[in-house]
Amino acid sequence: MSKKTINLTISVLVFMLLAAIVAYMQPRRTSNFTYYFEQGKPWSYELLTAEEDFPIYKTEADLNNEREQVLQNYTPFFVVSDSVAGIVQKNIEGSNSLAALNPTEQQQLKEALQTVYQKGVVSFADWDKLTDEGWKKVKLVDSRHVASQVAVADIFTPKTAYSEILSLTGNHQHIRDLDLNVYLLPNLAFDTVRSEKIYADLISSVSLTNGMVQKGERIIDKGEIVTEDTYQILVSMRTAADEKTLDESLSLFSFLGVTLLVVILVGMLVLYLVMFRPMLIDSISNVIFICILIATVVVIAALVLRFLSVDSVYIVPFALVPIMMRVFYDSRTAFFCHLITVLMVALMLPSVSTFILVQVAVGLVTVVSLKDVSVRSQLIATAAFVFLTQSIVYSACYVADAGSFDGINWIIYTFFFANALLLLAVYGLVYISERSFGFTSALTLVELTNVNSGVLLEFAQRAPGTFQHSLQVSNLATEAAKRINANVLLVRVGALYHDIGKMANPGYFIENQSDGVNPLNDMPEQQAVQIIVDHVAEGLRMAQKRHLPSAITAFIATHHGTSKVRYFYNKYVNSHPGEQVDELLFRYPGPKPQTKETGILMMADAVEARSRSLSEMTEESIAGMVEQMISQQIADGLLSETPISLKDVEDIKRVFTESLCSMYHHRIAYPELKKGCN
Questions:
Q1: 449-663, what's its fold?
Q2: How far apart are the first and last CA of the chain?
Q3: Average of per-residue pLDDT across 372-389
Q4: Of 463, 614, 619, 635, whose CB neighbour count within 10 A is largest?
């Protein structure tokens, strides 16, 4: 199986996984009520009528009020134990301390106990329950199942019963010495079964509904404000629909429908990449990165919708997709991926018009603000633009529907602000993506163009002639990249760094020789060639040491391809007539350029170097030189692995000719002042 087939198979599996994740995160459809509405806002759908009879459910607040009124008549039940008073009396009589009481005191104590237990004594736990619930009356049920109602204030706890007994007996010291607390027991027990049944009957007596809506009855029409009454009718309609659970076949068709929509959206993404960005889809890293980015945002949105409110979806930083895509790719791809992501999330929402309008505006503002990524501070400005865009578009949509700001959910603007703050995380995400996927962002490329620091400053100091050559090559390659729609910034940076290997031995290269003496001419041709060729390997070592991106090292490795060092090859052949020459000793090791950008650089490098040897700088001589150099490269097969077309080659030739003519245009001679004329 070829590498291309393997890559294609992996890419298909990745896109299938993306579709599966998005479909899985879609909310499950549990009813056929699909309308989204809010009290105080206009109804955004067509005329709604009842498809069948359904009850109007009361609000929770109304139900609670009615239940409170009903429960005002509720009294709990306590069972009276007739034997407890006798047991307490017997225990006291068996006490040794009772002998200290005279007959009168004993009679007073007996009567006091009878009085207290006739009213009733409850345990401390039951007393706490009575006071906590705020009950004023209770019903006492005796052994004959006869119920009598008494005030809670008239019954006792063991503590208050003891105080009452002391009061009824004249607070005699002998009775206090009996320590009656040890003997007093509750004779009233909470009747849980009877009490809870009466409580439940009272609660169930409150009707949950407040009338009926008849089949065919008009409920609300488009543009009408959802009033409090209408809102409750709509809630009741939704409740009735939810109670009417869909059967398995309808649930299956609902799932299949949503899945089909997701597959269509993923298919649109794949079709776009195949038709307009084939280089992206040919790379597994690019496919995985794009799918992970989209899936992450969709999953976050799904979780927010599942656990928070619908409006909370605006806290999700959807602009993260176009920002990351623009940093690594281009504006068109960034906006298209953003649109696909927004549509995937829109499938989860009950009402999508405002959401889609807001997010489309956000995507447009993002790609416009990052049209030319030059500094990292642009990301902060983009976050600010996203906040303003969301606020303005959402406000406009609301006013267009409601006619005013009355009833608007102001908390949503805090979601917009939090959204903008979350976008600042793109700084870290760019770095992580570069390290994880081997990408080179536009921001990194812009930083690498700074000639006043890092490698380029060292380059200018150690090999000034080569550095100037690189600047000229960069200008030529940039203009050519513009003409054939290649990556202009990447070409510019690659051209600046392609010859850094010459810093190892700058004096061996003619552009750095100020005295006109070339030490290579005094060496054997094979040794001289090795020094020339080694600047590629030296450049790669320097790039690795300074951690230059792989996208830049590709220019260093391929800017000569497998071309022949013709000067020393021809010189060797001429000095060794009849000898069989091994051409590999006079060729660069390669590889050949693989992209438009590296192919442009190889042509620009050869043309700029050759232009310095022209004895006559005319348009004809420059055009002839450009034609000869590029045709030779094509004949040698150096461009065979690049996606550069014959039309692109002709356009590049014209650009090179025009640019070199501008560089070497004839300048007028300034006249000298004659003596005596000043």
A1: Hypothetical protein af1432 (1.10.3210)
A2: 85
A3: 84
A4: 463
